[in-house]
């Protein structure tokens, strides 16, 4: 199973396990009491850009908690994410994953 298949059909635990196995240093932990989603998002985006640099032809994606603030941050970075071909996925509290789709699509 590829990382893309895990992200689109797996649970949060599957995504975490795949990241830990395949992408050393790619996992950004978001603390439960995170008072600054912007900081965690910025770090995740920085690491995604580093992965894009190292793996220009692979799928690179962000997996973020399904919270309004993270959705707003992704929407505000939509042009950058599209330009760098980085996908965004939201992990719901039940562990299911939803791929971000811009409103224009």
Task: Give me the secondary-structure topology.
Layout: H1 3-9, H2 12-22, H3 37-54, E1 60-65, H4 68-76, H5 78-83, E2 86-91, E3 97-99
Parallel strand pairs: 1-2
Antiparallel strand pairs: 2-3
- Report the sheet-strand fraction: 5-15%
The largest pleated sheet is described as:
3 strands, mixed
Number of strands: 3
In one word, what is the shape? globular
Order of strands across the main sheet: 1-2-3
**What's the number of domains?**
1
Question: Which ranges are low-confidence, i.e. pLDDT below 50, for 5 or more consecutive residues?
Answer: 1-7
- Gyration radius over CA: 13 Å
Summarize it:
With 105 residues, the protein is of the alpha+beta class.
Structure overview:
The protein has 105 residues and is of the alpha+beta class. It has one domain. The protein has five helices and three strands; from the N terminus they run αααβααββ. It has a three-stranded mixed beta sheet, with helices on both faces. A hairpin with a 5-residue loop joins β2 and β3 (97-99). The protein is globular and about 30 Å long. 18% of the residues are buried.
Label this structure with key terms.
3-stranded mixed β-sheet; 105 residues; 5 helices; disordered N terminus
């Amino acid at each position: 199973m590829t990382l893309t298949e895990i992200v689109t059909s797996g649970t949060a635990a599957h995504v975490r396990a795949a990241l830990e196995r395949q992408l050393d240093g790619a996992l950004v932990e978001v603390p439960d009491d995170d008072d600054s989603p912007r900081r965690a998002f910025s770090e995740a985006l920085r690491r995604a850009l580093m992965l894009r640099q190292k793996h220009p032809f692979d799928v690179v994606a962000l997996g973020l908690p399904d919270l309004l603030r993270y959705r707003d941050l992704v929407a505000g970075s939509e042009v950058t994410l599209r330009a760098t071909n980085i996908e965004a996925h939201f992990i719901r509290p039940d562990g299911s994953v939803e791929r971000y789709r811009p409103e224009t699509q």
